[in-house]
């Protein structure tokens, strides 16, 4: 009975998180905090030690990622809640969830923003370095998968599953500088900075030196910029929403938690 309640709370949490993230760009604490609290209680009641340890580890690792501006704070808490509410108390569920959430999101947004950038007009001169790096990574990946499949370490069908996402992901990687500048970077007044803004790459060196390489701007960094008489700054806004894809990945993992291991081994 507790396990059924656990799954119900998990489903409601990821559904609400996906909806609010898609609509507003935020996954609110009123969704994630109850998931974390109830997940911890149920894990203790059922002696689900894996859930407790994985929840703590995931929170710490994603918090570090958040500090580097690579993931949203709501995503960190949502993933922590999911780990604590893991109805299978096994790593298979989490691996499948993470894999398919990331895979589907990468493929969708790579195609979406590449098409938008193409319609706007791709600046190949600006993307020269990115294209070169993408080619190098492509060559490395080709040799890697040839070796791994020849040695029968991974299945061929797993490689085939990755082909389209990898191709679209590499195209996005090659064009990411222009995509960020055209669709995500906005110049705003420093006094209008919101909590946990992400700094854009095209800011001048003075701003970068003041922030000492930090990409996440909090109240302290905001006051530091104002103190140094910086009035405008370029930040990243309207970034891709990950919540809906966490929902999709979790649903896949709920129905077939061993899917990724079945494909891989």
Question: Spans with pLDDT under 50 lasting ≥5 residues?
Answer: none
The percent range for strand residues is 5-15%
Distance from first to last alpha carbon? 33 Å
Mean pLDDT over the residues: 89
Order of helices and strands: HHHHHHHEEHEHEHH
Strands of the largest sheet, in order across it?
A: 1-4-2-3
The share of residues in helices is over 70%
Which descriptors apply to this entry?
265 residues, mainly alpha, 3 domains, four-stranded antiparallel β-sheet, 4 strands, 71% helix
Topology:
Layout: H1 2-24, H2 29-45, H3 49-67, H4 73-84, H5 91-120, H6 128-150, H7 156-184, E1 185-189, E2 197-199, H8 205-211, E3 216-217, H9 219-227, E4 232-236, H10 243-255, H11 259-264
Antiparallel strand pairs: 1-4, 2-3, 2-4
Structure description:
With 265 residues, the chain is mainly α. It has eleven helices and four strands, in the order αααααααββαβαβαα. The protein has a four-stranded antiparallel sheet with strand order 1-4-2-3. The longest helix is centred in the middle third of the chain and has 30 residues, at 91-120. The radius of gyration is 21 Å and the shape is globular. The mean pLDDT is 89.
């Amino acid at each position: 009975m507790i396990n059924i309640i656990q799954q119900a709370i998990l489903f409601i949490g990821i559904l609400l998180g996906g909806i609010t993230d898609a609509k507003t760009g935020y996954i609110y604490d009123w969704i994630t905090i109850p998931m974390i609290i109830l997940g911890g209680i149920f894990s203790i009641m059922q002696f689900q030690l894996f859930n407790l340890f994985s929840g703590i580890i995931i929170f710490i690792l994603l918090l570090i990622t958040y500090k580097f501006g690579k993931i949203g704070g709501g995503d960190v808490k949502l993933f922590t809640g999911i780990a604590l509410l893991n109805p299978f108390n096994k790593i298979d569920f989490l691996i499948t969830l993470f894999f398919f959430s990331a895979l589907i999101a990468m493929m969708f947004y790579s195609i979406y923003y590449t098409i938008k950038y193409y319609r706007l007009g791709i600046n190949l001169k600006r993307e020269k370095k990115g294209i070169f790096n993408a080619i190098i990574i492509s060559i490395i990946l080709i040799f890697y998968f040839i070796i791994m499949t020849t040695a029968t370490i991974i299945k061929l069908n797993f490689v085939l599953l990755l082909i389209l996402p990898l191709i679209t992901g590499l195209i996005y990687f090659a064009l990411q500088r222009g995509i960020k500048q055209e669709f995500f970077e906005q110049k705003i007044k420093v006094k209008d900075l919101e909590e946990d803004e992400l700094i854009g790459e095209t800011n001048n060196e003075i701003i970068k030196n003041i922030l000492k390489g930090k990409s996440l701007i909090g109240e302290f960094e905001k006051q530091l910029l104002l103190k140094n008489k910086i009035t405008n700054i370029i930040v990243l806004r309207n970034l891709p929403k990950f919540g809906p894809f966490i929902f999709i990945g979790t649903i896949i993992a709920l129905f077939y938690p061993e899917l990724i291991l079945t494909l891989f081994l």
